[in-house]
């Protein structure tokens, strides 16, 4: 059974149609990579699913909960507040620019939401945070502040923060785009480890070799539509669409061993 179902999703900003009739499923334990040129609607898609933007059409279903109940006069009717809250707790989003609280220590960045949202005790939240920091190779940085960390370390903290809420699905919006090449590898390694643990993930990325190696399913978007999708072997090795071929040509060096 699909843990995430997106059907005929559309999004417009005034007269600009950014998403057009997007439909796909994500199964539990599956890693889906969304690739495509800048401006193709990838990040907007994630923002609509995560309630950061309101859809203009279509439906989203998370863990059998409907995000949108219907439309009236062209505007979405979203689920009641308690259902929206439950959906938020089932999904996590890791931003490309970290979005850590600069005035909080690493430990407090991770424990704040579990304590405030899940009503966990400080001791329980801190125990979970320390386990996650150990997993991220940052056990020694618990009392540091974001400004004292490298970009790669900050992004690992943001991943730990998202995992602290035990989401059913974890979304990544170009998690390495703000990092230099030397730091990119450490984030990709963390995501690969999560994939081995069968964490359900949807990853918007420009790292083609990474998408090929980690994803179970690849979606290529352009112009607000899904142009082509399939297994990594199908999309990267047996591309059927000419637009997909043109896009992937620039990444040919990524696939050389």
Give the rounded overall mean pLDDT. 93
Order of helices and strands: EEEHEEEEHEHHHEHEHEEHH
Radius of gyration: 19 Å
Query: What would you call the shape?
Result: globular
Portion in helices: 25-40%
Low-confidence stretches: none
Main beta-sheet strand count, sense and barrel state: 6 strands, mixed
How many DSSP helices?
Answer: 9
Strand content: 25-35%
Widest sheet: strand ordering: 8-9-10-3-11-12
The number of E-state strands comes to 12
Beginning-to-end CA distance, first to last residue: 36 Å
Helical/strand content category: alpha/beta
Summarize the structure.
The chain has 9 helices and 12 strands. It is of the alpha/beta class and about 260 residues long.
Supply the key terms.
single chain, 257 residues, alpha/beta, six-stranded mixed beta sheet, four-stranded antiparallel beta sheet
């Amino acid at each position: 059974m699909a843990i995430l179902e997106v059907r005929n999703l559309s999004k417009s900003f005034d007269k600009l149609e950014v998403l057009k009739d997007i439909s796909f499923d994500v199964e539990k334990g599956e890693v889906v990579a969304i690739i495509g040129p800048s401006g193709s609607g990838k990040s907007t898609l994630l923002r609509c699913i995560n309630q950061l933007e309101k859809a203009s059409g279509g439906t989203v279903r998370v863990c059998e909960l409907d995000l949108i109940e219907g439309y009236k006069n062209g505007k979405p009717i979203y689920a009641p507040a308690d259902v929206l809250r439950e959906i938020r707790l089932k999904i996590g989003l890791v931003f490309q620019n970290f979005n850590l609280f600069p005035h909080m220590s690493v430990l407090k960045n991770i424990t704040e939401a579990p304590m405030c949202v899940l009503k966990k005790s400080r001791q329980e939240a801190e125990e979970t945070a320390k386990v996650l920091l150990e997993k991220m190779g940052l056990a020694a940085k618990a009392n540091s502040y974001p400004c004292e960390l490298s970009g790669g370390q900050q992004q690992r903290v943001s991943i730990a923060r998202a995992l602290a809420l035990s989401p059913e699905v974890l979304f990544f919006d170009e998690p390495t785009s703000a990092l230099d090449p030397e730091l990119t590898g450490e984030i990709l390694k963390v995501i690969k480890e999560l994939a081995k643990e069968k964490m359900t993930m949807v990853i918007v990325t420009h790292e083609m070799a990474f998408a090929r190696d980690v994803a179970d399913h690849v979606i290529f978007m352009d112009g607000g539509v899904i142009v082509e999708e399939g297994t990594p072997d199908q999309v990267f090795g047996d591309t059927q669409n000419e637009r997909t071929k043109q896009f992937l040509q620039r990444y040919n060096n990524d696939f050389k061993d």
